[in-house]
Amino acid sequence: xxxxxxxxxxxTYDLREYPFPSVAAAVLGIDRLESLHEHxxxxxxxxxxxxxxxxxxxxxxxPQIRAHYERFLRERIAPDYGEDLCxxxxxxxxxxxxxxxASREFHRDSDYNHQTGTINxxxxxxxxxxxxxxxxxxxxxxxxxxxxxxxxxxxxRFDALRLKHGSHPNGTGVxxxxxxxxxxxxxxxxxxxxxxGASGVPLELGGYYMLLTRRGEFTHVSx
Length: 223
Fold this sequence. Notes:
- By secondary structure, this protein is an alpha+beta fold.
- The strands form two sheets. Strands 1, 2, 3, 4, 7, 9, 10 and 11 form an eight-stranded antiparallel sheet that branches. It has a three-stranded antiparallel sheet with strand order 6-5-8, with no helix packed on it.
- Strand 10 and strand 11 form a beta hairpin.
C-alpha cells in the first residue's frame, strides 16, 4: 500500500469529565452495561451488528449523549490535528452479546467505501478483553490478529482503513459495549457519491460527517 500504516495508540481520559459508561447506562435504562443482554435479549436470527432492538433505543435517545460526544471530539480529538475535520456525526454504537460476534466479518474499512486519510477511534464503555473485544491485524495482509484489551477510561486510535479487524464469538459471558467513530481531515475529503457500507448514509458533510472547524465549531450538523 502506498501510505504507511498509522501507528496504533491507546490514550486515557477522565471518566468524571466524560462519563460515557454511566451516561450510556442511563440512556438504556440499566444499571450494568455488562448485563445488557439480560435486559435487551438478542432476537433469534439477529447478528447483533446494528440490528438488535437495543441499537434502535440508543440511536433514538442519542441526543442525551450528544453533548458529551461533541465535547470529547472538540477537546480530546481535534487538538491532535489543528485543522478542519470531518467527524462522524453520530458515533457507531456496538454491542457484542455473549455467544456472538459484533461484526459480520473481518474486514478493512476500505472495503466499505471509506476514503484514504480516514482514522478510526474505538472507545469501550465496558471492559473489553479476550473474545469480547476487537481483534486487529498486526500489519496489512499479515493474517495475524491480536485482541485489544482495554477498560472504560481508555480509547484506541488505529488504522482500520488498512488493517483487517473483527471479532470472535464472545465466550466471556458478559456483554461488551463500545462506541467508535471516524475522523477525516477536511483537506482529504473527496465528494465520491458513495455511501457507508453499513448504514447506507452518504459519506459526505451533512450525511455521515459533520464539520469540526479548527476553531472548535460544528457545522453541517443534521438531526
